[in-house]
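Example record for the data management plan.
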Amino acid sequence: MPIDLMGIEASDLDALAERVRSWLEDHLPARWLQAALASDQQALDRILADQAVTSAWYAELGESGLATPGWPAEYGGLGLAADAAAVITDELTRLRADRPADEFIGLALAGPTIIEWGSDEQKERFLRPLAIGEHRWCQLFSEPGAGSDLASLRTRAVKDGDHWVVNGQKVWSSYSDRADFGLLMARTDPSQPKHRGITYFLLDMHAPGVEVRPLRQLNGHSEFGEVFFTDVVVPDADRLGPEGLGWPVAISTLMQERSGLSGRPGVGPGQADALAVRARQTGAWDDPVLRDRIMQAFITERALQMATVRAFASLGRSEPGAEGSIRKLTHAQLEVTLGLLATEAEPGDAIAWDAPDENAAAAVDAFLSGKILSIAGGTSEIQRNIIGERVLGLPRDRDPYADTPFEERPHD
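Corresponding structural encoding:
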């Protein structure tokens, strides 16, 4: 049942936060609530590892509308503006009651893109299971030769009656090994210039011919995967948007992704705060140079938090714009800085040998994971180009083959 927000004015964010806080305290499993309020990380980790508990909670959260507050009510949301949705995100984050990271693509990318471009049948089929946590999604965009230049993708989809046959390869697809569906871009007409002749599909990841190979990362995890398609049959009913006009659909997804990765949720204690506490525990805080660098990271994190809140407050119900690239770039740089500082705050700098305890292990993981955001969701180099062209108004580099059919373009 959706949460009751009757009597709360759209502009009264404090009242909204109080209503959501009260609902969470009444509905969140008692031991989960207790562990979150006590900041008992070990207890929280045990709870979050219990799939029976989390599945039941994510379903209830989805039914309440709090998992998708910005979606229209008819699709399982609450129809709230971006600033109000951000308030709900803050309350969920405070109690660690929000959906897991591997559902970001479905909730933040697939859902809004389907709402904007999908048919009534597609909305009915995909949105509710997504909202209540039944389906997970991945993003099938980047390829070995089409990462920063995404429109150079070569995965082909050939129409055969009422379906398409897909062959090709994607790479750096987060959570593809556990996804039920994927957001797929494929070239359907190579006689068109590279930004045309692309079609967007909603792919069943369990279809015959789909093979996922996890990629082992520097930090030891396999968050990303490479995906191979061999004569994969995709019904035309699973095409999202017009045939051959998948690029505008993809832009909708990319803008949502950039916005979702472009800042810190809420305002208050963050990674820099925790780092300062740890540095005091280890004695590293006594180093004036390191102390100054931690404080610089603290300032950057607070500024990013405030910029994110301001962006959501001014966004309302409009689409995110190129300004999000500024926050995305800052966020990526901050992650690298915090990862490095985490190791320096540990005795022995943490990465000189195997981590001796949980704190050192977390520091090592932060260090080895620090570059992920510099690549995911558009590299930092891409963000700099976007900022230069769309924010600062600098001239774009001219593509001499812009109007050349893709099949006639020179390829490396």
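Summary line stored alongside the record: The chain is about 45% helix and 10% strand.
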